[in-house]
Amino acid sequence: MPWTGFNFQWIFSWEPGAQPGQPDLKALDFMARHGFDFVRLACDYRFWTVDGDYFSLHEPTLEAVDGYLAVCRDRGLHFSLNMHRVPGYCINRPDIERHNLWTDKEAQDGFVFQWEAFARRYRGVPGDVLSFDLVNEPPDIGQYGMTRDVHERLIRRVVAAVRAIDPDRTIVIDGLEGGHIAMPELADLDVVHSGRGYQPMPVSHQGATWWDGWKGHEAVYPGGDWWGQRWDKAALHEFYAPWREVAALGRPVHIGEFGCFNQTPNDVALRWFTDLVGLYREYGWGWSLWGFEGAFGIVEHGRPGARYEPVDGFMVDRELLEILRP
C-alpha cells in the first residue's frame, strides 16, 4: 500500500446546476512521468443523486466517475473513490444535511446503498486499480452522536455489504476525529487504515480561513507549542504510535491527506515536509497530498519564499517535489 500521489476535487462540492468536472489529464500525465501512482478523488454524493434522493442515482454522473477511473487506469494510477460528503455527514458544513449519518437510519441505509451500487458497477475491477474510501474524516468522538461503537457498527455493515458483492475490493477507512485517531477495534477487518498528516496544525493550517485554532500559535518547526508540547521529528513519531500499532496488527496504513496551507513560510514548511515524509518512508506508508495545484499543492501554491521551476508545463516548487517524489 505504499501508493503516493495527490487528492483531486473534480466533483468535490455540489451546488444547484453543478456538473462533474473534467479530469486533469495534464496533471495525471505529470504524476505518471514522475513516479506517482495514487489519485484520491474527494466526492460529494449529491452529484450522483437525483433531487437529493439517496436511493435514486444519476447515471450521467456515474458515467463521469467511470471516465475518471479509466483515465487513471490508462496511466497506471490507482484510483481511490472517496465519499468526502456522504448522506448525513461531511466534516465541512454537516449542518446542511437533512439527516445525521451517525444517528439516522435513512442516512445510514442510503450510505450503504450507494456503496453497494458502486460495488456492483465496478465488480471485477482489480483491487490494485480501484479502492473505496468509505467516509472522509469522521468527527470527534461524541460529536453529532458519533461514538466509537456507532462508527464501528456502521463501518462493519458497509464493508460486509460491499464484500458480499465484490469480495476483492480494496476498502479504505479514515481515522476518527478528522482522520487523526487510529482504530485498533477495526484491525480485524481486511481494510486499509487512512490517517492524516496535518500535525502540528499551526504549521499545516497557519492562516486558514475555515479553522481558527491556529490563532495565537506561530508557524514554527521544529519548535513551537501545540497541545502543550514542542514539535519535532520525535514528536511526530510519537503522534503516529497508535497507527504503528495498527500496522503491527497486520493492517496497511496510508496517509490519505496531508499538506501545508500557503500562509506558512516556505522554509518552515519544507523542514516539516522533510521530517513527515521521512517517517512515512521509514514506516513503509504511502501518502496523498491534499491537492496538486492550489494552496496545498506543489504548483504555484503561494507560500512565502517558495521558488518555482518550469517542469512539464507546470511552475513547480522543485524542492517540495524532490521531497515528495517516490
Q: How would you describe the overall organization of this protein?
A:
This protein has 10 helices and 15 strands. It is α/β, with parallel strands linked by helices. It has a single domain (4-324), classed as TIM Barrel (Alpha-Beta Barrel). It has an 8-stranded parallel beta barrel with strand order 1-2-5-7-8-9-12-13, surrounded by 4 helices. Helix 3 packs parallel to helix 4 and helix 9 (266-283) runs parallel beside helix 10 (318-324).
Name some characteristics of this structure:
alpha/beta, globular, TIM Barrel, 326 residues, two-stranded antiparallel ribbon, 10 helices
CATH superfamily: Glycosidases
Radius of gyration of CA atoms, rounded to a whole number: 19 Å
- Annotation, overall tally of beta strands: 15
The CATH topology annotation reads as: TIM Barrel
Assess the beta-strand content as a share of residues.
15-25%
Number of domains: 1
CATH architecture: Alpha-Beta Barrel
Shape: globular
